[in-house]
Amino acid sequence: MSNTTAYASALALIDAARTFVNSRPGFSPANYNSAKSYRADVARAVKQRAAALEELKMLRYGFNAMTAWELLTDESLADIVEIANGKGWGSIKALQTQDGAYRMEFITGQYYPTEYRRAALGWVEEMLNEIRIRNLEEGCRRVSAQQAAARAEILTT
């Protein structure tokens, strides 16, 4: 597949994650024994949302770099998603629908409002780590090739 379709899929993936992170947590004061503990959980969720949205911006920059280096293909995107889905955040996964769109699936543990954004943040961080590794490997490969060419030029002159 072409680089542009992979990039469009990557943007669709980011949009699905952003929609998931921006969804309302559904806190219920009735689940808390004090207003203080309720406000603490709400504040934590707000911070997690901000952190996840910031990481999603970084994810887009990572995909941009992969696209510039022609590393982003449908296969590499599928690999990255599979790696992120399989890491320690097994309760959250990005699933591709039949029409090629993405949706996030989350299996709650104890209390959804306090868990889902933290899981999303961890999932995005795993995606970012994998992209950084791939971009770093490509950068090192290119630098090594340039150094080898420079050495060969020096030796031939």
Q: In terms of topology, how is this protein built?
A:
Blueprint: H1 3-22, H2 35-68, H3 74-86, E1 92-96, E2 102-106, H4 112-156
Antiparallel strand pairs: 1-2
Helix pairs in contact: 1-2, 2-4, 3-4
In short:
This protein is mainly alpha-helical and about 160 residues long. It contains four helices and two strands; from the N terminus they run αααββα. It has one domain (about 5-155).
Structure description:
- The protein has 157 residues and is mainly alpha-helical.
- It has one domain.
- The chain is built from four helices and two strands; from the N terminus they run H-H-H-E-E-H.
- It has a two-stranded antiparallel sheet with strand order 1-2.
- Strand 1 and strand 2 form a beta hairpin.
- The longest helix has 45 residues.
- The radius of gyration is 20 Å and the shape is elongated.
List the uncertain runs.
none
Share of helical residues: over 70%
Largest sheet: 2 strands, antiparallel
Number of strands: 2
Features of the shown structure:
elongated; two-stranded antiparallel sheet; 4 helices; mainly alpha; single chain; 157 residues; 2 strands
